Structures are given as structure tokens and as C-alpha cells.
């Protein structure tokens, strides 16, 4: 463990505490959906993305084709392409193989911490990875803790727990709202999604609606984000 | 139908492969992506439109409690900035309306 790794780890602790709250909630919801603890544990390590895992678990009991569920989980994470592109110079010194496993430790939280730090001084890839390990530990244990709590709640519909996913997704959608320039893409997305939801089987409505909305943003000019 | 057994593991492995591919490809090729123009606008809009597509049909089908909860959630996020609080208030709204209407 290098000093840079330790610095990155420490710098990401506040972000990790935010992750902990989110992880507890996610764990409770996953228990509600019937995801087992071993499945969650592997998912936390192998997928290691809150938004992708949320989509995965949200669609867990929908009877959707597997590849559609996995694809929807991946598509919501397309932004990682931009995150890892931005930190590619930090990972380059580790070589092809060294970069290939380290890039798995890029999450929203330690990415933001690393980018902020890089404005003040020269950071290294170890700082980034230290932050990723920190966020990962908080994520792993909070999700499993939430999962063990989740099984103790009886008659979930009395507390509106069956509505939890829709509520959480709605709240997250509101945070992603970028103002007036989103009106057109989101309207297209909602209209296409609703039509596909009614007319097509499976999870096509998520993929088609999301793609149509993004295409709408592409064809309409205007300011950039 | 709930995912179980081999199907559950398959969907986890598949999602892990997809998500890792995005991370790896971004690191390897991300610098070649256009910094502006239609592709950039589509990529920036995509996470939001995915959530809009995911949420809207469910809310439309959930009826009055669902729509009322959506309004509460919208206001709660805009006023407090807390996703967690908004979610709890949304769930509370649904539970309350169900209790009142006896469903």
C-alpha cells in the first residue's frame, strides 16, 4: 500500500458514508425482491455500480429476458465511459494489464474526489484506486447489512415498500433533470417508453425509451452540457 | 417470475461483463470520443432519459396514489435535495392513500 493509496482512501471516507446510506436502502430493497446474500455479495464486487445494480434488482422479478435486464443495467452506466476516459492518463503508467484491473475501481464517488484533488496537485492512479477500495468496502458491507435487515420486515405493502423502487427511481430521475433542455428528450423518452410498455413484451420500453430520448437530444441542437 | 438459480447468476455475470466493458473501453478509447456535437449530447442525455423511460410507464399505471406520490417526490427532491427523504415521503404517501381508501 503506497502513501498515495492511503491518501485516496482517506479522502473518499466522506463519500463512503454517503454510499453507506444508499447501500443500506439498496440492501433492504434487494431482500424484498428475493435476491440472496451470496448473489448480492458477488454483485457488489463484480458489477460494483449502484445505479446498474439498482436497475438489475429493480427488474429482478419482472420476468424479463436476461440479456435485456443486463443491457438495461449497462446502458444506465454509459457515463462510466466518460469517467474512465478522463482518468485514463492516471492509469496509463501501470501498463495494459495493470490498468485493466484498476479501472474496475472507478465509481462516481472516488472519481469526483480524484478529479477535485487533481485540480490542486498532481495525483496518481494509486490515489484513485485507494478511493475506489474505500467506496467499495462501504458499499459491500452496507448492502449486506441492509439485506439482513430487510428480511425482518413483514407485510411490506403496508409500509408502501413495494412502491419503494418506483419512488427511488422517480427521485433519482428528478436529480438527473438538467432543466428546460431536458423537456424535449424526456417527453420523447416517456412517450416511446409508454407505447413500448403497452405494445411490446419484456423490458424493451426501458431501452427504446432511453435510446429515443438520447436521439432526440442529439438531433436537437442548442447548448451543450 | 423471480430470477433464481442459474438465471440469477447468469444475469449478474452478464451485467458485470457489460459494465466492466464500459469502464475498460472508456479508458482505452474514450479520448477519441467527440467533445461536442450530437454524439456528446446523446451521451449526456442518456442516463436521464433511461430513468424517464423506466419510471413513466410505472407511474402511469400506478393510478392516483402513484401520481400523488410522484408529485410529493418531485417537490421533496427540489426542496431538500435528499433522494432518501424523497423516497421515504413517496412511500409514505402511497401507504397513507392506501390506508385512507382501504386498498
TrEMBL record, chain A:
<keyword id="KW-1133">Transmembrane helix</keyword>
<comment type="similarity">
    <text>Belongs to the AzlC family.</text>
</comment>
<keyword id="KW-0812">Transmembrane</keyword>
<keyword id="KW-0813">Transport</keyword>
<feature type="transmembrane region" description="Helical">
    <location>
        <begin position="127"/>
        <end position="147"/>
    </location>
</feature>
<feature type="transmembrane region" description="Helical">
    <location>
        <begin position="159"/>
        <end position="177"/>
    </location>
</feature>
<feature type="transmembrane region" description="Helical">
    <location>
        <begin position="66"/>
        <end position="91"/>
    </location>
</feature>
<feature type="transmembrane region" description="Helical">
    <location>
        <begin position="12"/>
        <end position="31"/>
    </location>
</feature>
<dbReference type="InterPro" id="IPR011606">
    <property type="entry name" value="Brnchd-chn_aa_trnsp_permease"/>
</dbReference>
<dbReference type="GO" id="GO:1903785">
    <property type="term" value="P:L-valine transmembrane transport"/>
</dbReference>
<protein>
    <recommendedName>
        <fullName>Inner membrane protein YgaZ</fullName>
    </recommendedName>
</protein>
<feature type="transmembrane region" description="Helical">
    <location>
        <begin position="40"/>
        <end position="60"/>
    </location>
</feature>
<keyword id="KW-1003">Cell membrane</keyword>
<keyword id="KW-0472">Membrane</keyword>
<dbReference type="Pfam" id="PF03591">
    <property type="entry name" value="AzlC"/>
</dbReference>
<dbReference type="GO" id="GO:0005886">
    <property type="term" value="C:plasma membrane"/>
</dbReference>
UniProtKB/TrEMBL annotation, chain B:
<dbReference type="InterPro" id="IPR008407">
    <property type="entry name" value="Brnchd-chn_aa_trnsp_AzlD"/>
</dbReference>
<feature type="transmembrane region" description="Helical">
    <location>
        <begin position="50"/>
        <end position="77"/>
    </location>
</feature>
<keyword id="KW-0812">Transmembrane</keyword>
<keyword id="KW-0472">Membrane</keyword>
<feature type="transmembrane region" description="Helical">
    <location>
        <begin position="6"/>
        <end position="29"/>
    </location>
</feature>
<keyword id="KW-1133">Transmembrane helix</keyword>
<dbReference type="Pfam" id="PF05437">
    <property type="entry name" value="AzlD"/>
</dbReference>
<feature type="transmembrane region" description="Helical">
    <location>
        <begin position="83"/>
        <end position="101"/>
    </location>
</feature>
<protein>
    <recommendedName>
        <fullName>Branched-chain amino acid transport protein (AzlD)</fullName>
    </recommendedName>
</protein>
Amino acid at each position: 500500500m503506497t502513501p498515495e493509496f492511503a491518501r485516496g482512501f482517506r479522502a473518499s471516507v466522506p463519500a463512503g458514508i454517503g454510499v453507506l446510506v444508499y447501500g443500506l436502502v439498496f440492501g433492504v430493497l434487494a431482500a424484498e425482491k428475493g435476491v440472496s446474500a451470496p448473489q448480492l455479495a458477488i454483485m457488489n464486487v463484480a458489477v460494483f455500480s449502484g445505479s446498474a445494480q439498482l436497475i438489475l434488482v429493480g427488474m429482478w422479478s419482472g420476468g424479463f429476458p436476461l440479456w435485456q435486464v443486463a443491457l438495461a443495467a449497462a446502458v444506465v452506466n454509459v457515463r462510466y465511459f466518460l469517467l474512465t476516459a478522463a482518468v485514463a492518463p492516471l492509469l496509463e503508467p501501470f501498463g495494459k494489464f495493470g490498468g485493466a484491473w484498476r479501472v474496475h475501481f472507478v465509481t462516481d464517488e472516488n472519481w469526483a474526489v480524484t478529479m477535485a484533488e487533481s485540480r490542486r496537485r498532481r495525483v496518481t492512479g494509486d490515489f484513485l484506486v485507494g478511493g475506489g477500495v474505500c467506496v467499495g468496502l462501504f458499499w459491500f458491507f452496507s448492502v449486506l447489512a441492509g439485506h439482513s435487515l430487510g428480511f425482518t420486515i413483514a407485510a411490506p405493502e403496508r409500509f408502501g415498500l413495494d412502491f419503494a423502487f418506483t419512488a427511488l427511481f422517480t427521485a433519482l430521475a428528478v436529480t438527473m433533470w438538467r432543466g428546460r433542455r431536458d423537456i424535449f428528450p424526456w417527453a420523447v423518452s416517456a412517450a416511446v417508453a409508454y407505447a413500448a410498455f403497452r405494445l411490446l413484451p419484456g423490458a424493451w420500453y426501458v431501452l427504446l425509451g432511453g435510446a429515443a430520448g438520447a436521439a432526440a437530444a442529439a438531433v436537437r441542437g442548442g447548448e451543450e452540457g | 417470475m423471480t430470477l433464481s438459480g442459474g438465471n440469477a447468476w447468469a444475469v449478474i455475470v452478464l451485467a458485470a461483463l457489460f459494465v466492466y466493458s464500459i469502464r475498460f473501453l472508456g479508458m482505452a478509447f474514450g479520448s477519441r470520443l467527440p467533445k461536442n456535437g450530437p454524439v456528446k449530447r446523446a451521451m449526456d442525455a442518456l442516463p436521464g432519459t433511461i430513468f424517464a423511460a423506466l419510471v413513466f410507464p410505472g407511474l402511469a399505471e400506478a393510478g392516483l396514489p402513484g401520481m400523488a406520490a410522484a408529485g410529493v417526490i418531485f417537490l421533496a427532491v427540489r426542496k431538500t435535495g435528499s433522494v432518501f427523504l424523497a423516497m421515504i415521503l413517496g412511500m409514505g404517501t402511497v401507504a397513507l392513500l392506501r390506508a385512507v381508501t382501504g386498498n
